[in-house]
Amino acid sequence: MKHLQSSLGISILEPHTKFELQLADAYSAFSTFVLEDEAERCISIIEKHLSRGGDGGGVGYLSGGGDEYDIYRLNIAITNNDDNHHSDGAAASELLDMFHNSHEGKRYRRILTYEKLTQYMIGMCERHRCESEQQQDNIIISSSSSSSRRYDRVGNLMLILNFGPTPGQIRHIDNTDGNLFVSVYMSTHCPSTVLYEVGDPFIECTSDLIDYWDDCYSNDIWKDSSSNNKYPPPAEVPLLIRDVFNAMGNEQLGIGKRQHYTSKYKFWGTINRMLQRFGRLYQPIEQVHKFEVDPGTTFVAGGNEVHAGPPTFAPRMFAFAIGIPEDEEDDELLRKSKYKHSTGGDESSDEGQDDEDEENNGEVQYFPVLFHLDLCSIVFGIMEHEYNDRSEEHYPSKVFLLRILIQFICEYPSETYTETLGSTGREELQLWFGRLRTALNDGLNVDNVLDEAASDKSVVFSRRIVKRGRKSKRR
């Protein structure tokens, strides 16, 4: 376990101080109350807040739920009101109030508060930082000073829970670059977050991606992976794709001459900036790591790890947050984080916010399929508007990128992405994607379906695209 943690740069921390052990006991009691003892009442409270629409009560859905059981997120907003020892007014507060007023919960009133939950998380972030420093031979740990940034607060704090079996999530990356990803597990025998260990090469810019695609072609990696799925692998990387990627990697999107056809991707900044954060989605998966943990166990990882919520066979509950270093511009981060929750993550609410930072608070999230679709949309638009003198190269270049997409679709053949694609307002793309999935799953020839998207400018490239998934929506 220690070898695994050090090689991946993660920490799986168990409670050991008196304070931590007391809280771990309280987490177990609270989760048992919510998920088992008073499950019907708690579901009723959550659904009551959901029925109010928007992000009422700080409640939303996460992806990974099934036909019978959803996965809920309950935002936690900490207040400084000494008369109320936890968050004010949200669904999470109502659940904790109900627990505190129960026979079992009365003895946990002082120890189990959302303020103490944040203290617990910050302490675990610091343990992670110290353990990471100890793994570096040239750094000496000092209790009074450290060369690395200390963690003194958390943002995007929430409870995540489901009341029955769920199929789990698609692997993805949340944009937490520079911050920590923190999960405190509360229920007994709780499945941990699934962590995907990716192999070389490291992909963080367009030239890395081209080199990787060249390697896949020259070493028949695509051919081998396609043979079992009965579809042709991608061909050699077209010259136009190489030229676009080499020229556009560091070019700002959504401004100047590109404003009218990449305006909805202004939040990307540049293609290379997003590949630095999400390029691991293209890297091959070497190993999948998952654990069963006890209440109080905390999973801490650096930003932008490939991960997923696990399949579950019983109710599950944990707290999630982003650990923020002390020298971050955290006041603005937290303000924006709370603002997005209060607006339900509405895309129109982002006007005037800092597109360069995008907060790094985990609210921008990508699956492999969705990231590649957005990359296709950007590149298709650039080809149409900036390389129209090479129109004869457009079709084979588009088909190449679309065949890359097939690789990701076949990883999760039953996933429809209906809700995520539907939330963008891109009906043509959603319908086309459905036809492509049907052809792949039925073993049919996909060439005609790919031809449709490569020939019709309105399918993949669209000016009506909106930003990708946020935690305040089902994903």
Give structural notes.
With 475 residues, the protein is an alpha+beta fold. 40% of the residues lie in helices and 14% in strands. The protein contains 16 helices and 14 strands. The strands form four sheets. The protein has a seven-stranded antiparallel β-sheet with strand order 1-11-6-13-4-3-2. It has a three-stranded antiparallel β-sheet with strand order 9-8-12, with no helix packed on it. The chain has a two-stranded antiparallel sheet with strand order 5-14. A hairpin with an 8-residue loop joins strand 2 and strand 3. Helix 2 crosses helix 3, helix 12 runs antiparallel to helix 13 and helix 13 packs across helix 16. The longest helix is centred in the first third of the chain and has 21 residues.
